[in-house]
Design brief:
This protein is mostly helical. The protein is 57% helix and 0% strand. It contains 11 helices and no strands. Helix 4 packs across helix 8, helix 4 packs across helix 9 and helix 7 packs across helix 8.
Amino acid sequence: MRPSVSFLGGAFAAVVAMAMGGWIFVARGRGFSAAEEPGALEKRLAPRLRTWFIPAGAREKTNPAPDTAQVRREAMAHWADHCAICHANNGSGDTAMGRHMYPPAPDMREAETQRLSDGELFWIIQNGVRFTGMPAWGAAGGGHNEEDSWKLVRFIRHLPQLSAEEEQTMRELNPKSPDEWKEEEEEKQFLNGGGVNENAHHKHH
């Protein structure tokens, strides 16, 4: 006979409470920084938070977004604008923000993410994951509707096959800082034969 859901939930809560109690006890003496190398138990527990908090019914949901090149292009643009700052254009998580979160942003191309069902990936995008940097994009004001999130799931499936040309397209779609916008405008002026300031002139010579 399978254990009841309430029993499993209670057992999980007890394990988490004990683990957190141990972390807090240690942290009282030296602080608890995300920059520190985590211990073995923490390394095992932290990456599993996102799967532990997904409701059982999410796994069975099917993706209503068609698996087409057009859908992937739309999702790719959305990813470049909203997600790449943490997850990188290629899904590696190798960005300044992604590396310095705890847990770090996962490599979305690897089996730990790719083996999740479409419904589980959709739930994570919509609802976020507590105790990580993953926000609830489907919450009020979060910036995603359900259609956007299902399309992103299609793009996540495509990440292991992402081409160099697609990455270049995404770099052009990534948000730019004020300094980057200024430099881009100065480059356009230079290429069009317009005047540039002394600093911009030195950048090109």
